[in-house]
Amino acid sequence: MATIDRTFHVDPATMHLYIESLGKIGWQDECGAVRLAYTPAWMEARKQLSAFMQAAGLEVREDAVGNLFGRLRGEDDSRTILSGSHIDTAPCGGKYDGILGILAGLGALKTLREQAGQPRRSLEVVALCEEEGSRYHATYWGNRAMWGMIRAEELDALRDADDISIGEAMRAAGFPPERYHEAARSDIAMFLEMHIEQGRILYDEHVELGIVEAIQGILKFQVTVHGRAEHAGATPMDIRRDAFQGAAQMALDITRQVEERGRPAVVTMGRWDVRPGGVNVIPSEVRFSIDLRHPDEATLRQLARVCSETCESVARRRGLEVTVEQIENYLPAGMDTALQQTLIASAKTYGASWKYMVSGAGHDSEQMSRHVPAAMLFVPSVDGLSHNPAEYTPIEDVVRGVNVLTATLYQLAY
Ligand SMILES: [Zn+2]
């Protein structure tokens, strides 16, 4: 049974200062927080964070792709316990997604340095440079760089809306892209991430903390349906090959089957493109996206088969051609059970209410857990809002989470 030897109380005013200072950077009135990778707002946020890390007495360094680290060196410095999250935002984000996990790690390390001195094992807080994939389709860029998973061709192939490659953006921000491989590390022992829930379960149920058991898997597909463009008036219904009617039926049939499977399975078809797009023309080609999620790998794969078989059988019945192409693939990620137990022991020590949860959103911990033991702690999001400028977590909920993280890190590192 995991135990907690000592509790800590982080300073609420310091956490408030951290959140408000970073929240201002890149804030646009009509939109919210905008700190896209390698942009001036992103640079400014890293500069402010770096100053906070230095003031907290941490050794600050950045790697070749722009991940920023603050280290509290241990007596044994051969491996490090890492805590943090991502510094980039969704296109119009809020003041908490990602950044709160960094500030939690910073608050924890500051408190430990001041109140417990040098740890036995090294501790580091990390601001991962890119997680959201907002500017580039480069989801988990910073994380992948740390594990040597970036491929050289991505530096030129990944382009933003202005056709600037990620390599060019890195160079402009002061990170020569040809050095990307230097970001790889082999000394990470484990990873802990505090994050806002981004959903409304904790908020609605008045539970103070979420202990994440697994991050659900995400499979994304692009479906293309081909029929025949014909006159909308002159072609009888029974001989049409209407790509849209077929695609709509595929979407409904898939939805019904996922609904029958029940929670937590979810499916979304959010992007549609109908061609040629005339009011009086039978659609000849339809493309739509499928975003399918479930925390259990076997179930996820089975539901993926349901999607492709449904598309094929509808196409056959309606004389259409269909291709179902998988465009993204993130398998479910289990969080480390020993770390979960230590987080729970810590929550209990503070008298905090908690529950096990499955994360519906992807997180840096998903990538980390492929390489080292990883765990996540959720704090509530008011009204479940996230990826939204109104995203909010009261300071007492923040402080509770950071306290639990601090005591957990103490248990692991001292
Ligand atoms: Zn996030």
Detailed description of the structure:
- This protein has helices at residues 12-24, 40-55, 99-116, 141-146, 154-157, 166-172, 201-205, 243-261, 297-318, 337-349, 364-368, 395-413, and strands at residues 27-28, 32-33, 59-62, 68-72, 76-86, 121-128, 188-196, 209-215, 217-226, 266-268, 272-275, 285-294, 321-330, 333-334, 354-359, 374-379.
- Helix 1 runs antiparallel to helix 3, helix 8 (243-261) runs antiparallel to helix 9 (297-318) and helix 10 (337-349) packs across helix 12.
- Helices cover 36% and strands 24% of the residues.
- It has 414 residues and is α+β, with helices and mostly antiparallel strands.
- Strand 1 and strand 2 (32-33) form a beta hairpin.
- Residues 86, 97-98, 131, 195, 363 line the site of zinc ion.
